[in-house]
Amino acid sequence: MFAEERQNQILAELKTTGRVEVQVLAGRYGVSEHTIRRDLSALESRGHLQKTHGGAVALATAHLDWQGRATSLPEAKDRIGRRAARLIQSGETVILDASSTTLALARHLTVRPLTIITNSLDIAAVFEQEAEVELIVTGGAWKAPARALRGQATREVIRQYRADWTVLGACALHPRAGVTVTDEEDAQLKRAMVAAGLRTVVLADHSKRDQVVAHLVLRPEELTTVVTDEPWPELEIVGTQVLTLLRESVEKT
Q1: Sequence-separated (6 or more) residues with CB below 8 Å from residue 160
Q2: How many CB atoms lie within 10 A of CB 63?
């Protein structure tokens, strides 16, 4: 059995049981414990799991706080941000949701004339010295754990604008469940952002893949474009355009 196949089977077991043990895996696959530890290290480096003494546990990124999300898969998020930036043209208006991946996108949108609307002070700081950027910060109630401005006042500001693009982060993304988040207030704001944009793009690294949490943002049929770091054929099957650095797929009609 090739390493990639073995690692995929380990991931499948993690999704089912939530944890795996080195000794058990070594016996099952007929390889050394050193080989299994190497497999787990490779999977950990890609953000799929967290190694523990004697095994590993699934990494539930949907429930991480801001600091946890910001330090999870930074290289993947930077690649996603760079790819998403290619969609946005000079002179356009862009709504940027408060997330660690949209922050990565913001860093690739400097030095071009844009109108940026955001509920993130971190994203606002990226553009504060950019003379060609018209920056609109929504205001609202500051939610420190999420590093975001939220609430009724934030939603009312968003409803006053129209944008060429709405760009969202996601706690979880599933071909049958759509885009979901852990906080109802966040879901309400994201839905207002979607309503204000002509086109919506979701940025999601592979750790959000096939995950579901409580509060709905976009149904599967509403999910038109996703920018991610790995191919995702299951999303393409249901008609979503999936963009990665490696390839582009044409949206199904």
Answers
A1: none
A2: 12
Cβ partners under 8 Å of residue 212, min gap 6: 172, 174, 177, 180
What's the CATH code, domain 66-243?
Answer: 3.40.50.1360
- Paired tokens of 46: 């890609």
What does the block give as tokens for 220?
């599967």
Top-level CATH class of 3-59? mainly alpha
Q: What whole-number distance in Å separates Cα of residue 200 and Cα of residue 11?
A: 30
Report if pTM > 0.85. Answer: no
pLDDT tops 90 at residue 247:
no
If one counts every other C-beta atom within 10 angstroms of the C-beta of residue 3, the result is 12
Short-list 242, 253, 252, CA closest to 205: 242
The length of the chain is 253
- ∠ Cα 79 130 227 (to 5°): 20
**Token reading at 222:** 């509403």
In the β-sheet with 49-52, what is the strand arrangement from edge to edge? 19-21, 55-58, 49-52
Q: What six digits make up the tokens of 54? A: 């004697």
What's the pLDDT tens digit per position in 102-123? 999 999 999 899 999 999 999 9
**Any idea where the domains of the chain sit in the sequence?**
3-59, 66-243
